Amino acid sequence: MNKSFLTKIFFLTVLLLLSTVGFAAIDIYDFDDSELAARFQKLTYELRCPKCQNQNLADSNSTLSLDLKQIVYEKLKAGESDRQILDFMKQRYGEFILFKPEMSQSNAFLWAGPVIFLVLFLIFFLRWYLNNREVNDE
Fold first, then answer.
1. 44/93 same-domain check
2. N or C: which end of the chain has fewer CB within 10 A?
């Protein structure tokens, strides 16, 4: 291989690597004060991307999450409170959109379930331990 061919390959590779930078998605939301920006950041971390399911809106780059971030941005600019925005998203997408679901009758067992199972486990373990101790003592 000659030197000019390797030089061309090198520059072509560098050009291809640098051209991919243009495809990176950059979200720019312009806020008048830092409080709104902080609220936007907090809300996008509290809301789950319905498409990605295990990512919050802040970390997701799906088209749906970009649309939802835009909705959050517009509602913040319109002066809505965090509670109003969360309620709107919950009404529109269901409770699944919240990373920290609220306690309600429909999900009370999910909140109480681990405690109930722990108490039941401790009761059964204690009974088993005491029964085995009595057998071993005889």
1. yes
2. C
Same domain, yes or no: 92 and 111:
no
Residue 20 lies in a domain: no
Here the tokens at position 24 are 């990176």
CB 110 within 8 A of CB 103: no
Are residues 85 and 43 in contact, defined by beta-carbon separation less than 8 angstroms?
A: yes
pTM for the whole thing? Answer: 0.60
43 within a domain of the structure (yes/no)? yes
Distance CA 23, CA 129 (A): 62
- Distance, in Å, from the CA atom of 52 to the CA atom of 64, rounded to the nearest integer, reads 9
